User: What shape does this take?
Amino acid sequence: MALDNLISLSFTAEELTKLDQSLQTIETVLSGKTINLTPEERQQYGSIAEQNKLFVNKAKIYMEQYPQYVPNFLDKVEFDKDYQNSCLILKFCWIMITTIMPSPSIET
Assistant: This one.
């Protein structure tokens, strides 16, 4: 059974120029707002696994419902800012992924 060529792309010079300009715009917007972590820092700080995201979401809900129980060592304003930006970045990434790689249609 032969494999079907599911993806066949070609870009015009104009499209490539637009893509390059768009990527440069993204870089400009993010410049100074992001940092590059060293491998050691990546290991130290780690990342939030999917199951832990549920925990963070629940903690956010509890902090909003019971602000008197928010620990003193936690900066709630900074937490909210980080949480919101994380959601925006995830939304942006999801849009990019689904735009570049749309879901296959299901034929019945």
Summary: The longest helix spans residues 76-100. The chain has four helices and no strands.
